[in-house]
Amino acid sequence: MSTPSNVTGQVSWVGGVPTAGGGLVGGETFAIDRANAPALIERLTAIRDELVDIDTAARQTADDRTPPGTDGYSAVAVGRICRQASDDDGCHGRANLLFQLAVQTVIDNLWASLAQYDEAEGTAAASLRQQTESS
């Protein structure tokens, strides 16, 4: 699965608070408290997992081409429903995949930002300890 070129993002820390932006989804930005980041990641992971479940159900719908009746209208309707559940542009499968990738990008960037922030905090604390010990 490759990331579409229009699904990008960046999360940076400003004053101990991550700010996401740079084209995440529509270019929105947001800030969260460091203490709330793990809970946000957990919620985003649940959303991503639900999107996978929805996509699985849609693909099963697309694969089941059995019309409810023998009339021509039922067959046409089922064909259209199956197409809308597909990966074609403008259809559910494609939109779902892009949404999954966008959510995963936010999750990955939050994890990376947490690690970067924690490393900076650790370096600052070690520097402060070193200054205190040498005084």
Folded structure, characterized:
This protein is mainly alpha-helical and 135 residues long. The protein has one domain. Helix content is 61%, strand content 9%. It has helices at residues 37-63, 72-84, 92-134; strands at 10-14, 17-21, 30-31. It has a three-stranded antiparallel β-sheet with strand order 1-2-3, with helices on one face. A hairpin with an 8-residue loop joins strand 2 (17-21) and strand 3 (30-31). Mean pLDDT is 77; it is low at 1-25.
Key traits:
135 residues, mainly alpha, three-stranded antiparallel β-sheet, 3 helices
Q: Briefly, what is this?
A:
The chain contains 3 helices and 3 strands.
Summarize the helices and strands and which ones pair or pack.
Elements: E1 10-14, E2 17-21, E3 30-31, H1 37-63, H2 72-84, H3 92-134
Antiparallel strand pairs: 1-2, 2-3
Task: Summarize the biggest pleated sheet.
Answer: 3 strands, antiparallel
Number of E strands: 3
Tell me the radius of gyration.
22 Å
Which range best describes the helical content: under 10%, 10-25%, 25-40%, 40-55%, 55-70% or over 70%?
55-70%
SSE string, helix = H, strand = E? EEEHHH
Low-confidence stretches: 1-25
Instruction: Summarize model confidence as the mean pLDDT.
Output: 77
- Terminal CA distance reads 55 Å
- Shape annotation: rod-shaped
Q: Which oligomeric state applies?
A: single chain
Number of domains: 1
Structural category is mainly alpha
Tell me the strand order in the biggest sheet.
1-2-3
